[in-house]
Specification:
By secondary structure, the chain is an all-alpha fold. The chain has 2 domains: 1-38, no CATH class; 45-82. It is 76% helix and 0% strand. It contains 3 helices and no strands. It has helices at 2-20, 28-34, 46-82. The longest helix is centred in the C-terminal third of the chain and has 37 residues, at 46-82. The N and C termini lie far apart (53 Å).
């Protein structure tokens, strides 16, 4: 939670420009399109949170499959070397 809060504080710094410069808030959608991770975590929708979690889970599953295949190949090599 502390890391997320610190990251949110750093993300709020660019918003100071939008507050200080008059009529800059009209360009906010453009900047959000260019930099989608600019918004703090409190502005994330549930669907985006779920999508991020799914991507992380898929990446973890792919890594686990890769490691399992690597270990299986290593076991085959060791068995062939000793056999």
């Amino acid at each position: 939670q502390l890391l997320r809060t610190c990251a949110d504080l750093f993300r709020l710094v660019p918003f100071l420009v939008f507050v200080i410069v008059p009529f800059m808030e009209f360009l906010l959608p453009v900047f959000l399109k260019l930099f989608p991770e600019m918004l703090p975590s409190t502005f994330e929708t549930e669907s985006k949170k779920e999508e991020k979690q799914k991507k992380k889970l898929n990446a973890k599953l792919e890594l686990a499959k890769f490691l399992q295949e690597t270990i299986a190949e290593m076991a085959k090599r060791n068995k062939a070397d000793t056999g």
